[in-house]
Amino acid sequence: MRASFLAGSELSRAVRHTCLLAFLFFAGLLPAGAQQLQSAEPQANPGRPTVSTPATLTPVGYVQFESGLLSAWNSPGLSSQSSINEVIKFSVARRLELLASSQPYAVSRGPNQPSNAAGDVDLGFQAVVDQEEGARPTISFGYFARVYSGDAPNLDIGGFKNSALLLISADVKGFHYDTNYIFNEVISSSVRRAEFGQTLSISHGLAGRFGIAGEVWHFTQPFLRSNTVGNLWALSYSARRNVVFDGGFNRGLTGTSTRWELFVGCTYLLPHRLWRPKIEVAAEHAVF
């Protein structure tokens, strides 16, 4: 049965709780944001906060953290959920990136649902098939596998056992777009089903260091015999080349979609390289 809306007082408390977490989350990062952008620094390549993932990779040899706080209301089987989400990316080569995704902590409210629990942990990779620039799209293939099954309940999209992705990104007339085609294997009580998803995200720079992104996404829901569709909007602020803050909301558009989601987060690319491509090492030896 679909969960009912939160009472007004409970919704207010949830919003205040999210704002407090966001303040604490960003407090340690604000000093970095007050500094000037440095052209010598590597540039972050945020995958959050949209559902779409860019086909382009992060700079080779640098670790990127995508951290966020999410509050959701009125999802199938849940009245509300507030959670911490983390994605870690590391490109080991110009065309290969390793990824880890997790939900370290979630507070959920719903019938027969654990109130405090961790979510799933997924490991995967992303490989560039055709790397282009400008209006010619970059095309990548990605794969994720669940390595730990958490107790926190999933929202409308659900969780997957295995996931394959086709990712396409390009820049057209000052706009950037990312579109994904997603093929998931989902399991419920040992029953396996295929879940399909499509996303389209379009972003554009605003005045100064601000940017805006809009997205539409769709996933089938094989166990509910339905579909979930959402419309997402987000603002971003580049405090530095390697630090990007974001915040926004997602609105569910079908009866089995999470009705509202609010999120804030940060993408942080470590400024020190941990991995040097062999071609750079070879070039350095040739010079000296």
Reconstruct the topology from this structure.
Blueprint: H1 8-27, H2 30-33, E1 63-75, E2 78-93, E3 96-109, E4 116-117, E5 121-130, E6 138-148, E7 162-172, E8 175-188, E9 191-205, E10 210-221, E11 226-240, E12 243-252, E13 260-269, H3 278-287
Antiparallel strand pairs: 1-2, 1-13, 2-3, 3-4, 3-5, 5-6, 6-7, 7-8, 8-9, 9-10, 10-11, 11-12, 12-13
Structural summary, described in words:
- Helices cover 12% and strands 53% of the residues.
- It has 3 helices and 13 strands.
- A hairpin with a 2-residue loop joins strand 1 and strand 2 (78-93).
- It is mainly beta.
- A 12-stranded antiparallel barrel has the order 1-2-3-5-6-7-8-9-10-11-12-13.
- The longest helix is centred in the first third of the chain and has 20 residues, at 8-27.
- It has one domain (8-287): monomeric porin ompg (Porin, Beta Barrel), CATH 2.40.160.
Pick out its properties.
mainly beta, twelve-stranded antiparallel β-barrel, 288 residues
Judged by helices, strands and strand pairing, the structural class is mainly beta
Assign a percent range to the helix content: 10-25%
What integer is the average pLDDT? 86
The CATH architecture assignment turns out to be: Beta Barrel
Please give the order of strands in the largest beta sheet: 1-2-3-5-6-7-8-9-10-11-12-13
What is Rg?
19 Å
Largest sheet: 12 strands, antiparallel, barrel
Oligomeric state, counting identical vs distinct chains: single chain
Number of domains: 1
E-strand count: 13
Which fold name corresponds to the CATH topology? Porin
Give the N-to-C terminal Cα separation: 70 Å
Shape: globular
Task: Identify low-pLDDT runs.
Answer: 1-12, 24-38
Q: How much of the sequence is in beta strands?
A: over 45%
Query: Mind telling me the CATH class?
Result: Mainly Beta
Number of helices: 3
* SSE run: HHEEEEEEEEEEEEEH
Question: CATH superfamily, called what?
Answer: monomeric porin ompg
